[in-house]
Write a structure and sequence with these properties.
The chain is α+β, with helices and mostly antiparallel strands and 516 residues long. Helices cover 64% and strands 7% of the residues.
């Protein structure tokens, strides 16, 4: 099909379209589709670009023919020459002819530049009720640059393909504004620069978002399937599996664009980093480097497309804000991880350390005390007749007793001692740098304090509670080989205390080792 015939086929008032277009239009709500088809001012592809696209579909592409078509558009010709002579391509001698410029850029890059520049030039002058076209093109250019940088990192496509897909991803917004300006302009304004909120409002009010409308537009323009798939998946990166990675890169680029266009730079930065990690598995440190690349390339890109983004200083200022937000996000992640770790080491009921923590901490403490030639004491205790407490007061009353005993243990020990709920009604206390004599005194103090404390099981009921205690200490006489041996010795002393009548302390003695 010739470029002219394509242009005729893509006119807004041509409602027949192609089979591919028909399949996609069925995805739109009927009322929205009707409004779009009835609009006579929908965006269209310039004739020059259609002719270039037509030539690019030929297997034997003739660069002079492409250059000849571009030459018919003086502004586009100047833009192609300017880009070819830019520092990006590092040419030594100035390129003065379109033939050489197209040869240097390559056919894909030339097509991408032609379509990008022509669309921006042709559509940026449009006006609509409360629709900010300048903000639209700022976002589109940043999204295109970000899509290119992120996409190249994950090898989702060529630079030109990624840039063009990123630039076109929001083209549906222009179509919606032309078709229903009184509705769409206020809708976009109410989102206040929050793209995700805008998408939700579109789906709620119109029954479809602008990505779906943009896909419909590209199909009518007969643009390549990869571009259609990228636009279709720009919000949720789903759709045609052949272009899944491309769609993910465009979706991530859209998130990154928010950093430079959303008033909430910090929030947008955090959301973009999370999305890049979850969708493309890009770690935080690498994501920061990608942001720097985007900021580095933006001034050149906006200059090529004549878009006012606010200058290089403005771009870098927002980049600094994004970095600060990512540092804060990293600190929050570390704090969250630490909190999870702490929670995993704590008993949910009493807030004491749990058995898992003891299994990890006791061997370390044992080794530290051994190397420093310092004593270490383990106190093992459990609540006497706890089953009877549960039977008479219920499990809720039993839980109240466990909490009460835990509170007594913490009050009866030093800040650097470690109190652990071992399991059920059993508790363990570690006393570093504490010998057998002091340990026996602490154990008796715990035993007496539990017996003397009023233990509340309901609002109006208190019951007496006692504990049996066993303790063992590493001393010159008690040279335990491992932490497990020390804990086992205290445990055996605990059962000796229970066998002797409960509510008492039994301390480990070296001469009783064989009998124990």
């Amino acid at each position: 099909m010739s470029a002219i015939r394509k242009l005729q086929a893509l006119r807004p008032d041509n409602l027949d379209g192609t089979d591919a277009v028909d399949k996609r239009t069925t995805m739109l709500p009927p009322s929205l589709e009707h409004a779009l088809k009835a609009c006579r001012t929908l965006p269209s592809v310039p004739v020059v670009v259609l002719e270039v696209l037509d030539l690019c579909q030929d297997e034997e592409i003739c660069i002079p023919k492409v250059a000849k078509v571009i030459a018919r558009d003086p502004a586009l010709s100047a833009k192609v020459l300017k880009v070819a002579n830019s520092p990006l391509y590092g040419v030594r001698a100035q390129i003065k002819t379109l033939d050489r410029a197209v040869t240097l850029l390559g056919i894909n890059a030339t097509l991408s530049l032609a379509l990008s520049f022509s669309l921006v030039r042709g559509l940026r002058k449009a006006k609509g009720a409360r629709f900010d076209h300048q903000a639209y093109w700022r976002r589109s250019v940043v999204a295109a640059t970000a899509s290119q940088v992120v996409g190249c990192h994950v090898r989702a496509g060529t630079r030109d393909e990624l840039f063009l897909a990123g630039l076109l991803q929001d083209i549906g917004m222009l179509a919606l504004n032309e078709a229903m300006p009184k509705i769409y302009g206020p809708l976009v304004a109410s989102a206040n620069g929050d793209h995700a909120m805008q998408v939700e409002l579109e789906r709620k009010e119109l029954g479809a978002d602008h990505a779906l409308v943009g896909t419909w537009m590209l199909a009518r323009w007969n643009l390549p399937e990869n571009l259609q798939a990228a636009v279709a998946g720009s919000h949720d990166s789903t759709g045609d599996r052949r272009y899944e990675l491309l769609a993910k890169a465009i979706a991530a680029g859209s998130r990154v664009a928010e950093i430079w266009t959303n008033p909430n730079t910090a929030g947008a930065s955090v959301a973009a980093q999370i999305a890049a990690n979850s969708v493309l598995e890009i770690p935080r440190d690498r994501f920061e480097m990608l942001l720097s690349e985007v900021a580095f390339e933006l001034p050149e890109v906006v200059a090529n497309l004549d878009i006012d983004l606010g200058g290089e200083a403005f771009i870098n200022r927002l980049l600094d804000q994004a970095r600060e937000a990512l540092v804060e996000l990293n600190l929050q992640a570390q704090q969250h991880a630490r909190l999870i770790q702490i929670q995993a080491q704590r008993d949910e009921l009493t807030s004491l350390y749990n058995r898992a923590y003891l299994n990890e901490f006791l061997p370390q403490e044992f080794e530290i005390c051994r190397q420093a030639s310092q004593p270490l004491t383990v106190i093992f205790l459990d609540i006497d007749n706890f089953k009877n407490i549960n039977d008479t007061c219920g499990h809720q009353g039993g839980d109240m007793v466990l909490i009460s005993v835990a509170r007594v243990l913490q009050a009866s020990t030093r800040n650097f001692d470690t109190v652990v709920r071992y399991g059920g009604d059993e508790f363990v206390v570690l006393l570093p740098n504490t010998g057998a004599e002091i340990a026996a005194m602490v154990s008796q103090r715990i035993c007496s304090a539990v017996a003397a404390d009023p233990h509340t099981v309901t609002d109006d009921k208190q019951i007496p509670v006692t504990v049996s205690v066993g303790c063992a200490s590493t001393t010159v006489e008690n040279r335990f080989a491992t932490a497990a041996e020390l804990l086992d010795a205290a445990d055996r002393c605990l059962y000796a205390a229970k066998s002797a009548g409960r509510n008492q302390v039994v301390a480990y003695e070296p001469e009783a080792k064989e009998q124990a």
